[in-house]
Amino acid sequence: MKVAVLGAGAIGAYVGAALHRGGTEVHLIARRAHLAAMREHGVRVLSPRGDFTARPHVTDDPAEVGEADFVFLGLKANSYASCGPLLAPLLGPDTAIVAAQNGIPWWYFHGLKGHPLEGRRVETVDPGGSVTAVLELRRAIGCVVYCSTVIEEPGVIRHLEGTRFSLGEPGGEISARCEVLSAAMIAGGLKAPVEPDLRNDIWVKLMGNVAFNPLSALTRATMAQMCEHDDTRALVATMMTETLAIARAAGSDPKVSVEKRIDGAWRVGHHKTSMLQDLEAGKPLEIDAIVGAVVELAGLTGVPAPALRYVHAAVSLLDHTSTTPVPVGSH
User: Fold this and answer.
1) pTM, whole model, 2 decimals?
2) How many Cα atoms are found within 13 Å in the side-chain-facing hemisphere of 268?
3) What is the Rg, in whole angstroms, of the alpha carbon atoms belonging to the chain?
4) What does the pLDDT read at residue 19?
5) How far is CA 173 from CA 13, 67, 168, 235, in A?
6) Taking every annotated instance into account, which residue ranges of this chain make up the domain Ketopantoate reductase N-terminal (predicted)?
7) Where do the domains of the chain lie?
8) Which of 15, 24, 77, 88 is most deeply buried (CB count within 10 A of its CB)?
9) How far is CA 55 from CA 17, 36, 92, 275, in A?
10) Does CATH number 1.10.10.60 belong to domain 200-323?
């Protein structure tokens, strides 16, 4: 089995290293200093579960890799529409694309059998079908990441917690390709259950992302600080409650309470969300898949979601002002 990791950052390099350790042929496609360090020293993983070093093939040119059985996308969802030139050399007739993204995926309504919105495009994450044109729906395998990693320095991945990568077909079948990938990930020391309804996992994780990510960017607060501040904790609970109502209207029924979800976030401690890290690094914020698509689904299903709408408006403006210079002399 041949796996290409397109976007071998903190999560991508960790997954690639684990797969390689388990005996899979792995090719990491990375950039700049991280690329050079991994080429010279391999991928060094520092983990409470045990440190290890893996030496898969590393390149910045997908043409060197050629067709793969699986492409693991370690890119942010807001770069999917533009990744076509990098992805094309990796695709054979049956190549599967495993998108380890946060939030609502572009394939969300694909295969949602019997639902009134089956086959509908989620415009927020697939505007005009621009993502579907690059990532064909038939290739999609969903992946919900319950794992936290950071790049401690080029070529060095610090694994903080979690090893679970839930997999699933958009149509809910337990496919041979999912089982093969799951077995390879398990051989590398990861947890990789194949779920008959991955959308429930999507919503359970999204309950936290949709609240904590934008609020952390707006307040510069850590997970623990947001949970310990009474008014912010109440706002988080409201946003999670709205998200659960949207999930149920969209055909899912995640089995988790709001308080349990908040308490789990509090136990993470003084951790900065990925959105806050992106803000501090001057990068565009991953708003559309995490917040905007949930607001879109609220509109499609007729669920009132005022808190989500207000926070979305504020963080969207923050994203604009943080990446767009103010012209000299403007008011």
Assistant:
1) 0.93
2) 24
3) 19
4) 98
5) 28, 25, 8, 37
6) 3-104
7) 2-196, 200-323
8) 15
9) 7, 13, 25, 30
10) no
CA distance 115 to 45: 43
- 64: nearest Cα among 107, 96, 35, 37: 35
Token readout for 257 is: 């309470």
- Token representation of residue 238: 């409201």
For 169-201, write each residue's pLDDT tens digit: 999 999 999 999 999 999 999 999 999 999 999
What positions carry a catalytic annotation?
205
**DSSP assignments along 29-77, one per residue:** E--HHHHHHHHHH-EEEE-TT--EEE--EEES-GGGT--EEEEEE-S-G
Type of residue found at 23:
G
Average of per-residue pLDDT across 65-76:
96
Rounded to the nearest 5°, which phi and psi values hold at 99? -100, 105
Q: What is the DSSP letter of 283?
A: P
Query: Class for domain 2-196, per CATH?
Result: alpha beta
Instruction: Scan for tokens 């999507």, then name that residue.
Output: 202
CA–CA dist 309, 286 (Å, integer): 16
What is the per-residue pLDDT for 138? Answer: 97
How far does the chain reach from its first CA to its final CA, in angstroms?
Answer: 58
